[in-house]
Design a protein that fits this description.
four-stranded antiparallel beta sheet
């Protein structure tokens, strides 16, 4: 009985401390619905600039993507200023804001790596942190 208990306890302790090998990257994720509401149902190009880095995505009018991801610099954390420009034909809209980045650990809280990211939405001309659960959870 004692041996069974000790081996069971060791399995639980060792299993709780095991880390996976999943990696992650610092990123911003935008709610696609907020972008569509902002520009309508046309094809568009969205450019996101944050922490001195800019990335663009071309989005077709028929895209059913739920969210768009944009990479951030490796050493970014805390708050970051985000500027968004959406261009659809001759129409152009801009939004900006300072958003809070959250730390997340895809392999568990005691395992590396730790990455920073934020789920964002656009309201008027403001970029804001999205409500929790709006975009799929980070693994």
């Amino acid at each position: 009985m004692k041996r069974w208990f000790l081996s069971s306890l060791m399995a639980v302790v060792l299993g709780a401390c095991a880390c996976n090998a999943a990696g992650c990257g610092n990123d911003l994720r935008f709610d696609a619905a907020s972008l569509r509401e902002w520009i309508g149902s046309k094809a568009f190009v969205v450019e996101v600039c944050a922490d001195g880095r800019c990335e663009s995505r071309r989005v077709s009018a028929s895209s059913t993507t739920r969210w768009f991801g944009f990479p951030l610099n490796e050493d970014v954390s805390g708050e970051v200023k985000v500027e968004v420009t959406i261009t659809a034909g001759s129409d152009e809209k801009q939004a900006s804001g300072i958003v809070e980045l959250d730390g997340y650990q895809p392999n568990g809280r005691f395992c590396t790596p730790t990455c920073s990211g934020a789920d964002l939405t656009i309201e008027g001309d403001s970029v804001q942190n999205a409500e929790p659960g709006l975009i799929a959870p980070r693994d």
